[in-house]
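Appendix B. Raw example, untouched.
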Amino acid sequence: MDPVPALEEPLKKVLGPPTAKVMAEHLGLHTVGDLLHHYPRRYEERGQLTHLADLPMDEHVTVVAQVADARLHTFASARAPRGKGQRLEVTITDGSGRLQLVFFGNGVHKPHKDLLPGTRAMFSGKVSLFNRRLQLAHPAYELLRGDTGETVETWAGALIPIYPATAKLESWKIGKAIQTVLPSVQEAVDPLPDSLREGRGLLALPEALLKIHRPHTKADIDDARARLKWDEAFVLQVALARRRHADAQLPAVPRRPAPDGLLSAFDDRLPFTLTEGQQKVSKEIFDDLATEHPMHRLLQGEVGSGKTLVALRAMLAVVDAGGQAAMLAPTEVLAQQHHRSVVEMMGDLAEGGTLGGVEHATKVVLLTGSMGAAGRRQALLDLVTGEAGLVIGTHALIEDKVQFHDLGLVVVDEQHRFGVEQRDALRGKGKQPPHLLVMTATPIPRTVAMTVFGDLETSVLDQLPAGRSPIASHVVPAADKPHFLARAWQRVREEVEGGHQAYVVCPRIGDEEDGAGKARKRSPEDEAEKRPPLAVLDVADQLAKGPLQGLGIEVLHGRMPPDDKDAVMRRFAAGDTDVLVATTVIEVGVNVPNATAMVIMDADRFGVSQLHQLRGRVGRGSAPGLCLLVTEMPEASPARQRLGAVAATLDGFELSRIDLEQRREGDVLGQAQSGARSSLRVLAVIEDEDVIAEARQEAAQVVASDPELAAHPGLRTALDALLDEEREQYLEKG
């Protein structure tokens, strides 16, 4: 039997089962190669200290600092009623800021002995807020002592790698494990073609791995990162280039609209003219539809820029050419909304096959998982006979039972919720691969589009249609200034009295059973934890009895039966409800022009792009919109700065940049949510725009000359590893 290559050796053989288990469960590291690619997040110089003032709340951090003072207190508690409870409070400093450490009970003896004033150490723990001060409760620590024989200068100048760590495994323990496997780097297979590496003066892979984990100088770190960034960018771009290459080989039926068919009839009835942006993007799409290879296009547009209209015109063009078009939406609420708005826009052109239908009319069917059996049977029949030219639905469209007469175009709304597998499943429904248009209202910076959607051509709609109103956004600091919150509810009343409606958005539903009701014994350090996020059911109840008493209030959330959700939305759209208290189910696609105000509770619990999406639900009519971001976070916190950024600009592209810069590198695909680790570790999508653009060109050349990568075995190996991980992620997402 061949020996296992050194980098594929399981960690449990090298480090022992207990450590390997923690690494697998908490960091997703299984082999020696995985561990070598777990790069330091940053480096500390022993002589320099971390900025304590900038620590993020609720995150697991490692800091290097000096003990300023340590005091042991005794106190009475339930466990130690005679005043025998012990609490050690240690203050550490970096010269600019201070941080409190607390240890309780029997855990005080060792730190009391170790952490004398003047001692330097690495401390690792979760940052929490107690009495409005930052603290670490029971942090792990490692004292920094100079090795014997080391001069003060070399000791102070040594670079200490700080690794992404967890509460179960501190940074310095990861560092020791890496020390153990570091000799294996010599066997690392290089994915970069020699000509590319030499042409750009990049280090060889083994040398880069050595320098990233054990740098002697800051220049070592820069050289190593420059090389490893190229690996990530290049392997990812090769994967995308191969996908584009494979797609370009597929045949497709060209779809050209009839000169005076359904599309012309629809355009003639539009009560407004298309914006310049809509005309330009429509031309790009129609040019693609007329070719013999499938279109793969990403349409990004700001909230309310009229993407749905552009997509509908493309769908009508395909129906004109004898085909069918399907629109896939991520939720039932959104599928129902799209269906309603398409039928409204088309009028009697959507009544094909009925007495009210006119010439060129077609049938528009809705297909969702919760439809009754009879409605579902009829919809399936309309699709297989070709009676229905347009279908709008959820994932239910991907099921095996669904057959089309001649599927010519698939439109996917809010792409980031669908994996490539699901796109492919729907494309497999056509006799030949259908054309594909992917839409997103989440503005994506150019580099992310190249990285995440690199297998798609991109069109951008950045003009808002005439008549859309501006939205004013303000942060409401509920803890610092409670009267601001009272004023927010007053503003909601004023909007309703003026004949308008309002949304109140909360992060949670409130009927969760998972232990929320169980009484927990709270220890002193638990007291520093945050309360649970505000919930729709609780907030609706408080508003109805308190500040919004007498107004018509309804709730909407994802766990309601679909018919109830639809009924609530219909009543709100009709103006029968004054205030809708909802979760983020209203985030995309919901269109109620009369809703002018939105209050987002615990706004700090949402991401920047999500807040921008939510805010886009107001100001959709002629009256100006108002969005109030309510938070209890202290003024200096990063969460408040994030909310300030959202309040300061309506430019989605600017916000998506801020969002990316604030998220951890590698979280480009929003994988913090899916729990899967990203393939990006050193590539920062915003800053490394030039690397990504150059890697894309190089990758296209390599794939054009050698699609199977026969001459690049190292690249093939890296690609297989990346795609395995990607496949797992899509299956998890699916």
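End of appendix B.
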